[in-house]
Amino acid sequence: MSIKDRLEALKGEMSWTKFARFLGIRSQELDKYLRTQKPSSKLILIIKEKFPNLSLDWLVTGKGDMYIQEKHTYIPRIEVHEDYAKYTSNMLDALNDLVPIRLLEDLSALAPGACIALEKTFNFIYIPKKELSCPAWGEQGEDRIVCFSIKDVSMEPTLTLNSIVAVDLRDTTLKSNKIYAIYFPEEKTTTLKRIEVIKDFVLIKADNQNTPGFPKIVEIKKAKEYNMIRARVIWAWIKL
Fold this sequence. Notes:
7 helices
């Protein structure tokens, strides 16, 4: 993999002109690096500043993983070995301290234009009140928090397959190192990913570094235009 290939992996869907603007350098300067295949120490430092978790070894030589394994922010969660249904039934005596949250089929219910109120479900997850940072419902009784089961491994080891997450539908403010339900208009899919806010851009990444197609860089303007940020993960039950 050449330096151009590695920079292309970094820029994602951005054009080279936008990528140069993102880095804060002139397009001609970036063009020179692409032609000569010899990035200066200045460019390497700029890229490292923009991508703090990027492996310099990977950037310069192409060896190893693209990103350094990082420590992630804590998501409140209950870790149990037994089946979740059994876990829930054992806590029914403390029902007054538990909040029933709707467990929806999949993240497609969060896509723009979808109506969560019309989603038919008879499944609920009971979450301790102390684990929730906001009310479960809005003023009109509408859902504010809903739950989903994890259907892929892109966020492992943080969120494992078949674990359950709760998302706050009203929290769409971009905050670095938080996990969000993100809608991708090109693929028409909604998935959970972690973000980093870098000036006018948002870096969208999977905790599992082997996830194809990630990280992606998207302009914040585009993210808002397409309502890409749908909800923030606020709680998780991790299946061990």
